[in-house]
Design a protein that fits this description.
The complex is a heterodimer. By secondary structure, chain A is mainly α. Chain A contains twelve helices and no strands. By secondary structure, chain B is an alpha/beta fold. Classes of the chains: A mainly alpha, B alpha/beta.
Amino acid sequence: MQNTLTIAGRQFRSYFNGPVAYIVICIVLLLVGVFFWSPFFLMGRTTVREMFRLLSMTLAFAAPAITMGLIAEERRSGTLELLITMPLRESEVIVGKFLGAAGLLGVLLLCSIPYPMSVSTLGNLDWGPVLSGYVGLYLQGSAMIAIGLAASSFTENQLVAFFSSFFLCAIFVALGWLLPLLPPALVNVVQFISFDSHFESLGRGVIDTRDLFYFLSIAGFSLLLAFRALESRRWS
Amino acid sequence: MSEVMIEARNLTKRYGPQRALDSASFEVRKGEVLGFLGPNGAGKSTTMKILTCFIAPTEGTARINGHDIWEDPIGVRASIGYLPESTPLYTEMMVLEYLEFMAQMRGLKGDPARKAIKKVVEATMLGDVIGKEIRTLSKGFRQRVGIAQALVHEPPVLILDEPMSGLDPNQAIGIRDLIREIGKERTVILSTHNLAEVQVTCQRVLIIARGRIVADDTPEALSRQGGRRYVVHVDPASVEAKASLRGSKTALTSVFSGIAGIDTVREASPAADGARVFDLVASASADLRAAIFRAAVEAGLVLVELRSKGENLEQVFRELTTTAAPAAGSTGSDDENDDDEDDDEDEETK
């Protein structure tokens, strides 16, 4: 446990020692800001549902950007060998890395709070759905980070890690948009798989255990995959 | 005999059909500094990676400080300090920050950690760069940060993959003394392809070639196997003065090859002062300098220099690493040169 937190702490600090954290936060806030505020006054409603939708979409590239180097860079530079030969388990490395990236995700989401705060000054904002929306966004982001971490642990090339996890995250997000085009038999299945449907209910203020379970199991499965990838180096 | 700290049994590592390591067995005791010697790709790093539980052997096992690499990898890792090949470091961190992180990962916190870090920083002479980012440091400093990291928790076993690479001679002497000092009460394995370094640092040498251990002995005993070498400088004027020797190279070399005990004589390129230089190799370890001198005087030659290169580890290394048969099933990654001719100094020994 102690080791996990040490790794998480180092990872979190190294984000802010380099440019990664700042670049990702700036781009996300900029994109969300532009696309949220420009139609906001035309709609004339004090809601931030649209902001959550935009954040959920931008996370599909922000999460891979945060995670692409997690293991890949350590593998490339050889520090992985150093890390693995410390007296700790591979699982502690994976979970530590995950928590470090999840910490940055938390900071990223915190940075978007001025948006709903501004909205609340313009009218009566219902904070309940805002809170549950953030919970949903954090869960979805964590699942994406776990996917990115898994991608990062299979390669030593950060670009490969970025594009493969971006592709996966984008599919999970975009599946929801395809629903009207699908044959009725598939709709239920695809709806269950897509991030959108689970995130949607959380954004409305409904915290359903099925949605929590969905995101947590994706995260869990991805972390297991990352763990396996890390472990497989022993046998290659 | 002190206790066995590292015990490797039949370690084999296959990468596909290629054997990176072929049934390697050895023991290292407490208070020993063992040098792994071998050409590039011989299996030195593979062995170290197995001992540190970074990779698993295909066959065989090892125990380190009583912990089995299969059953208790965490126990193994807790017992070692490791410097991987090419010294990977978190270059965005400051030296102090890095050492703190490493100490913390080793379970050191607070006051003991501060004391331990202070100690290794002094031992590795890092005091001046403690607040600098690692990426700004020169190779020598980086190397020492890597060594400091391996030492910080005072492990009973130290595994250092090429600890001296990138160090200038002064730094190398400092690190060498440090390793010898540590080796007195703990166990050190280091790999290198610098023969001179092995002779001064290690009490025992393991020569690895094509995944096999081809020699396991003290550097002295190994160099004796290679016999002795003599370097003779002859005044060219004394050669010109003798009509029988002037034109004929063979007549000149036969002056020395006639000496009992001398196996081969080869003329090297002339010295800077114009003297003609001969390399004499003797299989026996007895000192033949007097006999060489007498032979030269009898032939009317004037010697301007006569040196004995008693240690001949280089020769032994060459023979052992180039004549060993390729490992069975090896697809042959023979990028090392196979010339058995005893020509100029091996590049690797520089």
